[in-house]
Amino acid sequence: MAEATPQTEQPELHRAIGPKLLLFFVVGDILGTGIYALTGNVAGKIGGALWLPFLLAFVVAFLTAFSYLELVGKYPRAAGAALYTNKAFGIHFLTFMVAFAVMCSGITSASSAALAFGRTYLRQLLVEFFDVALSPESLAITGIAIVFIAALAIINFRGVSESVKANVVLTCIELSGLVIIILIGAWAVINGDGDPGRLTDIHVPSGSNVVLAVTSATALAFFAMVGFEDSVNMAEECRNPVKIFPRAMLWGMGIAALIYVLVAITSSLLIPSDELAKAGSSALLKVVTVGAPGFPLWIFALIGLLAVINSALINMLMASRLLYGMANEKIIPKFFGAVHPFRRTPWISIVFTTGVAVILVSTADIGKLGGTTSLLLLIVFTIVNVACLVLRREPSEHKHFRAPTWAPVLGAITCAYLAIPWTSGRPADDYKIAGWLLLAGLVLWGINRVLHGKVETHPEKLGK
């Protein structure tokens, strides 16, 4: 007589994602707010050599991707950095702080997208269709960004079942906007327009040096390359993840990096860096205006709007789910794990993450929020790279991708280098915002420790 299957056993997730869908997921997760909103800010730090920090950011992310590929092959579960940290070091507090930092990076990323939504793309559409010109810093625009965050909360509260196929459609929309920029650049070169001499011009601020200028710009541009790490959370829904992940992730990152470098080259060819910096989050709109005066600007504004909406929604969903998972695992007060009786969504976590996002939107600009996002993730990536090396002592029961040793070593060094204040040239505000967010996590951890004492951590369940 066969043994009965225990009723408490959870069924496996449906493995519906093949290599092509995974490739689109990686590309779609990387493309978005970073390039659509921060091109002007990066130009203000580096000058005409705008392509350089995006290329260097890709190299740093590429090194870290090797560590993620080894770890997701060895532990093909939907948990990511928290799981790897816990397995490598077994320190409850460190595992929690890594998970909380990832959650905070989602909130800061979504907040920067909200500002891009209000101050750039919706504002441009208001000009195009209603001839209403609002100042980017006006209370009305800030109010629109806050309403946008609230709208995301409502969608999140109602319950969103994310489809990877829908991600393909949104990725194509995001990609189309960047292809428009690249084609404009190609047309300018064919017609002899633009100034190629700008491409080697590096702006060095007073009291700084070339290395610090490049590092500072790269630290901010890194925000545009994040997102690839989210794909590891799809491991349990991929067909043969050990086999398809390496090619999909590395090709996806390469495609995104190539697009970014071409967009940066086009921007510098057509517009001086000081004008790009002055345009800020509207830099790509300015590129379209200058390079293709007859192109309907509202089309690009609409594409940019959809790009930042997609980025913001994905990040707020991730943040609220991760907070809910931490409460469910009893590593923060269980109050945050409350599920609405009718919508079946984690409403307390949604309210909390939305409240934090509203505060950030009301008090910070896009550059600071983008810089804080990259700072938080650079810290997490440093730990993941070290964890990759530590976990090589643990044998695996199956064959999996193994990164060349130099990749996680260089990945840890470069990520730490871009995160340290005296080498990265980061503004102090990045550290202040990150510090306040992590302090909030420390308070929640402390309250929970007083109420419940030490609890066992199961990071593989945090995102469920």
Automatic annotation (TrEMBL):
Coiled coil: none annotated. The chain crosses the membrane at residues 21-38, 50-72, 93-118, 138-157, 169-190, 210-228, 249-271, 297-324, 345-364, 370-391, 403-421, 433-451. Its main location: membrane. Keywords: Cell membrane, Membrane, Transmembrane, Transmembrane helix. InterPro entries: AA/rel_permease1, APC_superfamily. It is found in: Cell membrane. It is a multi-pass membrane protein. This is APC family permease.
